[in-house]
Design a protein that fits this description.
Low-confidence stretches: none
InterPro entries: Ribosomal_bL33, Ribosomal_bL33_sf, Ribosomal_zn-bd
Strand content: over 45%
Organism: Evansella alkalicola
Helix content: under 10%
Number of helices: 0
Pfam families: Ribosomal_L33 (PF00471)
Strand order of the largest sheet: 2-1-4-3
Keywords: Ribonucleoprotein, Ribosomal protein
Family: Belongs to the bacterial ribosomal protein bL33 family.
Number of strands: 4
Length: about 50
């Protein structure tokens, strides 16, 4: 079963994306490089609560 999580920009803390988290990676915190519209560049996006 997958869990829905929200991704926020590491720099400006803007919540831009949602994604699904599988059972295999539930113990680790997700960090993905994505484009942030607020910053205007590719930044690291981390999972929020």
């Amino acid at each position: 079963m997958s869990q829905k999580v929200v991704l926020a920009c590491h720099y400006c803390k803007s919540r831009n994306y949602t994604t699904n988290k599988t059972e295999q990676n539930r113990t680790t915190r997700l960090e993905i490089k994505k484009y942030c519209n607020t910053c205007g560049k590719h930044t690291a996006h981390v999972e929020t609560k």
